[in-house]
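::Encoded backbone::
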Amino acid sequence: MPKAGDAGAELYWERSGRGKPLLLIQGMSGTHLTWGEPFLSRLEPDFDCVVFDNRGIGNSDEVSAPFTIADLAGDALAVMDAAGLETAHVLGISMGGMVAQQLALQAPERLRTLTLGCTYPGGPGSSLIAPEDAGPLLEAMGSGNLDRVFRAMYEVNLSPGFRADPANYDDFTAMASALPARQQTVQLQIQAVGGHDTQERLAEIGAPTLVIHGTEDRMIPVANGELIASLIPGAKLEIFEGVGHLFWWEQPQRSAELIRAHALGA
């Protein structure tokens, strides 16, 4: 396992599949398990997939010091180095998409292509979760009751259509309960997201870029994806109608096909 830059903490990472290198960067509270087998298994035939737990999350060492999105981009580079990846296709979702933006700006020579999913640029015209959705989620997190936390996360992250099938909730809770996020780390992640703003620099990104966003995303509204795609030269935008924040959970096959076509086509 690699050392995570200035944090001095070990980062947990795994690899699977074969083919072109693909680094996958998870979002707030997400672990390497959050990608899910239905999505990851569709990438593995064509990609050497490297997944990892962000600092303080999952199997990575606990941290207590504040960090920035740029620090997390440094961690992603540390994982690439440890995995022996000189360059890679990069997929970042939600907070991981913010990390991927920073990575593309800090080390453009390390990226083959960039895919940004359900993410946020910061700056004018951007927006995060609405107060009426954030309130119940934060209240559940503060309760210390994991059942309440999982139910609130499920409600805000997935679309009504997806939530209509009770079996989907069972799969979600099995994933979330396998490696529950440390609440101290989630608070530090919230602080890091609050300081993220790459909007004025997005035009500097030269990697071929694909942006994916669902219209029913309540965590990061779809207008953010549209804004990002308009600011990165040549970026392609894919809008998933009726899909929530965790688009790769709701539509794993379509998501994997888009990423494959984008990366291998470039």
Q: What stands out?
A: Strands lie at 13-17, 20-25, 47-52, 88-93, 111-117, 209-214, 236-240. Confidence is low (pLDDT under 50) at residues 2-7. The domain at 5-265 is CATH 3.40.50.1820 (Rossmann fold).
